[in-house]
Design goal:
Blueprint lengths: L2 H33 L6 H15 L7 H19 L1 H8 L7 H9 L5 H9 L7 H12 L3 H12 L1 H24 L5 H6 L10 H5 L7 H10 L10 H14 L13 H12 L5 H40 L7 H4 L5
Helix pairs in contact: 1-2, 2-3, 2-8, 3-9, 4-9, 7-14, 8-9, 9-13, 9-15, 13-14, 13-15
């Protein structure tokens, strides 16, 4: 067997084993989620991302330091987000309890959608299919964006960088808003007596799945949550960002318009579960759209500059027609 054919055979075998290893890692992740719960802490999330990336890049020379350099800026921003609640308290900015509530009343002619949905669909003794579906859609926020980013990192670092650019910009926009305009979600307004017949029910449907550490990791997740980070809804924002990024990847984006079902489902879930008002959802979608437009404009401008620079470099490298023939190496006539 020639060395070329041997190299191809070895590469094919390596790719097969890599695919098997990635599959095993995914199964291990699902099993861990079912038994231990989803990774809600930042170190756990980073650890799983590194494991999957390292397995998927066996034989490609990708090192742990390289992965950390690429991913740490993102997790620094996520840590900052986790601690925005303390910032608003230290800055003395009051929490807004009625702005979003009044906005929803204005949009829906005096009706608050969260309140209406829970009165008509929530039945405390019974777990309906839509209760479980709402809980699962809500939870997808904690891994959908990172899962897409991990897949892009394995597939194409350029596309990963494009998505991360949007992810980080949306995170910073949301974080800034949370610090300057802390706002309460519906369930917190209920505790202030502002919105009766409303309760947080995210865990209601998830209990039917019999996940062993349900209460533990829900409590852990709430311990790291910013309760007044409601405007805009980044659950809505990131779900829309994931959908829009995938829709506009490649040609004929209209064929992937069905992906908008994800942010719509997220919006319905978080409004029904009293995590957000409708106005929060609309603002989250608007933030995501603005980030897509801003990053797209910047990238087109960057590409134009690169093209102009490449053309200039190419022209500078070409010999001029009226240059000295002795310089360009053309025999004199």
């Amino acid at each position: 067997m020639s060395s070329t054919r041997l190299d191809r055979a070895l590469m094919s075998g390596l790719m097969s084993w890599r695919a098997v290893a990635v599959g095993v890692a995914i199964v291990a992740f699902v099993w861990s989620w079912w038994i231990v719960g989803p990774p809600v802490t930042r170190p756990d999330q980073l650890l799983w991302i590194m494991v999957v990336i390292l397995i998927a890049n066996v034989g490609r020379g990708l090192s742990i330091p390289r992965i950390l350099i690429d991913w740490l800026p993102l997790f620094v921003i996520l840590y900052l987000y986790d601690y925005t609640r303390g910032w608003t308290t230290s800055l003395g900015i009051p929490t807004h309890y009625v702005w979003a509530l009044n906005a929803d009343k204005f949009l829906f002619n005096g009706t608050v959608p969260t309140q209406w949905l829970q009165i008509h669909f929530y039945d405390p003794p019974v777990v309906h299919w839509y209760d479980t579906a709402s809980g699962l859609v809500y939870l997808s926020h904690f891994f959908a964006s990172l899962a897409l980013a991990t897949g892009l990192y394995i597939y194409s670092r350029d596309r990963w960088a494009a998505f991360m650019r949007r992810f980080i910009l949306l995170s910073l926009a949301g974080l800034t808003t949370y610090v300057l305009f802390p706002a309460a979600p519906p369930w917190l307004a209920n505790q202030r007596g502002l919105l009766p017949e409303v309760t947080p029910i995210t865990g209601h449907g998830l209990g039917a799945l019999h996940l062993a550490p349900m209460e533990t990791w829900l409590t852990l997740g709430h311990a790291h949550a910013n309760y007044v980070a409601a405007v805009p809804s980044l659950h809505a924002g990131f779900s829309m960002l994931v959908a829009l990024f995938l829709i506009f990847e490649g040609r004929r984006p209209w064929r992937r318009i069905w992906m908008l079902a994800y942010p719509i489902a997220m919006g319905l879930a978080i409004v029904y579960c009293a995590e957000h008002y409708v106005i929060d959802v609309l603002l989250g979608w608007a933030y995501a759209g603005a980030v897509m437009l801003a990053c797209g404009a910047w990238e087109r401008q960057r590409d134009r500059r690169r093209l102009v620079r490449a053309q200039r470099d190419s022209e500078a490298a070409e010999p001029s027609a009226d240059a000295d023939p002795d310089v360009v190496g053309v025999p004199a006539g």
